[in-house]
Design a protein that fits this description.
With 163 residues, the protein is α+β, with helices and mostly antiparallel strands. It has one domain: Beta-Lactamase (2-Layer Sandwich), CATH 3.30.450. The relative contact order is 0.14.
Length: 163
């Protein structure tokens, strides 16, 4: 900016650039914290593939369930996305987020894939605590111990914006 021959550098002109890097940095810190917590929750069952998945995938929330699909842990992003406090969801099945407009076909596909201990990737219509529906892209992966026994499922969830 020029004022009577003097040049001023406006920090507002650079703010967008700094803001973009700031958000990327925050996301990296959040992913690193999530990876540490997942490693702690899974007590050594988390291998490099799981940590790499967390680092590479774009997600808003992580959910860990036991083999019976009862929630044992959710990331900080889960309450932000759903409106449900962490303590309120522990022990519940993630299907409690589904509602009247959730596709029966999608629910059946998820059940079939998890019953046969396969991964599932797809989108599902879920509902926030306030009843508002949102479209959620989910990737569910089974986690095995060293003896190849299923110990947990990890779900990476990303809210999809509908145009």
């Amino acid at each position: 900016m020029n004022v009577e021959g003097q040049k001023f550098i406006s920090p507002l002109l650079c703010f967008d650039i700094y803001s973009e890097y700031y958000h990327k940095l925050i996301q990296q810190f959040r992913k690193a914290a999530d990876a540490r917590q997942v490693r702690s929750i899974l007590k050594g069952q988390a291998n490099n593939a799981i940590e790499e998945l967390i680092q590479l995938e774009t997600y808003d929330a992580l959910v860990i369930t036991d083999p019976h699909q009862n929630i044992v842990w959710v990331s900080d992003g889960f309450p932000e996305m759903t409106g449900y406090p962490k303590k309120q969801v522990l022990g519940k099945r993630p299907s409690f987020l589904q509602g009247v407009q959730t596709s029966e076909d999608t629910k059946q596909k998820i059940r079939e894939q998890l019953k046969t201990v396969h991964s599932f990737t797809g989108s599902v219509l879920n509902y926030r605590k306030n009843g508002e529906p949102y479209l959620c892209q989910i990737k569910i992966v089974p986690i095995y111990d060293s003896k190849r026994v299923l110990v947990n499922f990890l779900a990476l969830e990303k809210e999809l914006l509908v145009a």
